[in-house]
């Protein structure tokens, strides 16, 4: 890798992990508060802490890591190094996002933006928090344009050729992000900023929540798709196999692009103000977006089995023994995959209207996203870090670092088993999410919940130790002996059929996305605007 590209990628990754550390401290404290073990000192508020935790871990860690990773994929597969325009846009994007993140974090630490990571109305933050968000979003757009530029130039220079799978996936991921962030940009610019500066008195809460979830759901697939990039393209190489099918992988990414966005209402199933038909339609589309995940599961099993059999595995499950269990580059993402099976099943429960009535706003939902984003995605990102950082820094992944990585993964899995397991269970008993009341004045239900909250705190403490180990590992990876580490990109199996060219007809896919979005959102959004009586003044949270 060109040193200048490595610097850009590593800067993103280090920034991401610093956010993970600070977010992890907030997570530990709030787990201990809910377990009834400590009271927060120095006037720190529970919701303030919860905001810091969610923003830094779910929004900042992921976005910086992903952009760094996507740039590395572009450098690797689209010509061997970044073009100056792409690299400069990458830096410009990074600087905007970093400035926005710092400003937002200061606002949260000053208790002027205690609005949780979902930040929709009626809770109102200082206007500077929303200005900070503008910097983050605009910065991410610049980085996105840099990536698209690199891809376009490659295609112009390789007329008639299929683009590399990894680059294609990076483009879909970024395209989805760009289309999704239009929703949050409209919310922030047209609603939250004028309202928080006091230029208008009231805000349409329903519209603000809807614009947020228009963005908020594809956001979770923006986290997931880079993990899928690793599962589809890197894992086959690491296990000594090949990609099962290039066309299947591309189709699954295109399906994500189409169906990730028009599904935000499945976060609003319990809200009045949206008629049942539109909720129903978006739930149908939600079940459509499950299909590419099922395709991914199928493709992974096929990859494992085919590569195992090629190495001589016999019987139905003989391939299991052929997997490289002692290699952290495989082990960490694999634990992520394994966890994604119950995590995805939980998602299907959430999306089912009647069952959503049972779990909505309970700790079950918190349990769900700690399995999806905080385990399947996070462990895959950690698994990527073990080869990406040394590959970029010109270092070797030593056996000791490999060992530490395996220990880190196991610690994470154990901590999450306790934490997310008890969240799921106690959620079914009705324990609410996002509340500072822990003992509920010795109410009988709360007494029943408390042992689970204590188990959550214990799991959270183990997870915090795992965060510390991961941070140590990151910096240790930059100080291992100089040498070569492979950036693993697998080839496609020779049995696969040729990939149809249709997948790179972006005009077709973007038009279809627009049609689906208009179909799912036009009428309900017009209803929300027409029925905006009388608006809300909101709650100032500082
Ligand atoms: Fe979700 C709430 C529905 C996936 C994240 N979700 C959330 C929230 C977050 C989140 C952060 O319908 C909370 C937001 C908030 O703060 O309020 N979710 C779904 C559905 C899916 C889903 C249907 N979610 C995710 C992913 C996330 C994520 C992925 C992050 C990365 N979710 C919901 C709903 C709500 C919700 C409702 C609102 C709840 C409420 O009321 O508030 C699906 O995409 C899941 C499909 C997944 C599968 C699994 C496929 C399995 C694979 C692994 C194969 C494993 C192998 C390993 C090969 C069908 C690919 C080998 C194994 C061996 C045994 C050898």
Automatic annotation (TrEMBL):
PROSITE patterns on file: COX1 (PS50855), COX1_CUB (PS00077)
Any one Gene Ontology cellular component term annotated for this protein: membrane
Transmembrane segments: 8-29, 49-71, 91-110, 130-153, 165-193, 213-235, 247-265, 277-304, 330-349, 369-389, 410-430, 450-475, 506-526
InterPro entries linked: Ba3-like_Oxidase_I (IPR033943), Cyt_c_oxase-like_su1_dom (IPR023616), Cyt_c_oxase-like_su1_sf (IPR036927), Cyt_C_Oxase_1 (IPR000883), Cyt_c_Oxase_su1_BS (IPR023615)
Entry keywords, A to Z: Electron transport, Heme, Iron, Membrane, Metal-binding, Respiratory chain, Transmembrane, Transmembrane helix, Transport
Localization (cell): Membrane
Pfam families: COX1
Cytochrome oxidase subunit I profile domain span: 7-475
Membrane topology summary: Multi-pass membrane protein
Gene Ontology molecular-function annotations: cytochrome-c oxidase activity; heme binding
GO terms, biological process: aerobic respiration
Family according to the record: Belongs to the heme-copper respiratory oxidase family.
PANTHER family: CYTOCHROME C OXIDASE SUBUNIT 1, CYTOCHROME C OXIDASE SUBUNIT I
Protein name stated in the entry: Cytochrome c oxidase subunit I
Organism annotation: Xylanibacillus composti
Lineage, top ranks: Bacteria, Bacillati, Bacillota, Bacilli, Bacillales
